[in-house]
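Predict the 3D structure for this chain.
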Amino acid sequence: MAADITVNMQPHHLTIAEAMRTIVSFDGEGRLIVAFRNGVNYVRGLSGDVLQKRVLAPGQKERRKLPDEERRRVLAELLTWSQQMIEHIAATASPAERDWFDRIRRWDVDRLEAERERFRMVYKPISILPPDQYRALVLQATEGCSWNRCHFCTFYRDRAFRIHSPGSFRTHIQRVKDFVGAGIGLRRAIFLGDANALIIPQPRLRELLQVVHEEFRIGPQADFKGIYAFLDIFGAERKTLDEYRELAAAGVRRIYLGLESGDETVFRLLNKPGSPAEAIEAVRTIKAAGIAVGVILLVGAGGERFAHDHVQHSLAAIAAMGLGPEDIVYLSPLIIPTDTPYLAQLQAFDSRPLSDEAIFEQFNQLKQGARMVVGTGAKVVIYHIEEFVY
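Done. Predicted structure below.
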């Protein structure tokens, strides 16, 4: 068996594999982060949550967060396997590999589970990030969402909106550093949380960004390549071109906006702040300042009655934004929580949710249409919110 075991040691993570049938990776602290075993993928976040992903049939994938008992059982199995593999190869390992093995051995299920409480002492829940930022280091300059009234969203209903002072933000950052420890090497970008952090008034935002630069090296040749954040449209329209240029100079590389739909009626049905026209203007201003954008569209928004208009007007909005190679268009299938006003709003607008088949068809319409309107410019990618775990 030992001959089938391989170790891949990188500066910030180590992976152990057995004949490529079982693969487990660990961060610089020795914490398990991702694994593959028996055809199933597992992702363990800093929060302690474990996401399981597996293919059920061609084109059908299951994504779910493991409940407590199952999570503990899976972690125990993966750690036991890892320890057994380490024992097989420890005698012939290099000193650097043995140092990694010592760090990995310090973790058992109880210690991994205790991290869940430590995480809650450092962060408010990190509800969602853009897919390209799943491995960013999140710093919660704000908590919650300043709007928090979109009919389809429940991400931030459990907390009031709050903007940190420079002092409390620095304390938060120092707690993050202590918690993440040597695992910070896996984090290549800074993401300012939460839902629309860049709505912070510019004078306070300037102070908070200064704190970030005092705590981290940021730049093309530095540990962190840039700063990223969400921004709602009604916040985006309030910043001037000069203010966005100031953000670009401070290292902000991409801003993510939830357009959701380019159709005015669907936009109102969703109870989004602002308007599609304001979103187009905001994106063009942000790009004129030298900052890239990520624009999110909801696949299925508006249901059956507005399906055609949602697609056509969303593509028209994307086409009007002047997107380029550094920009991203995200297509996110709408997941409808049962405790939101969305279904009641659909009924009020005399519409019904799309079937799974219709969602798939609309996704393809938006994907093909968006690729046509952006040409060789922005990337067009799927955004499965069920695949997020931080």
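The first helix runs from residue 68 to 89.
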